[in-house]
Amino acid sequence: MKKIEWRTTVEEWEGVESLSTLDRELMDSATAGLKNAYAPYSGFRVSAAIRMKSGKIVVGTNQENAAYPSGLCAERVAFFAASSTHPNEEIIAVAITAQSELFSVDHPIAPCGACRQVMLEYELKQENNIRVILKGAKGKIYTLADIKGLLPLYFHEEGLKKGE
Question: Is 5 a catalytic site residue?
Answer without folding.
Answer: no
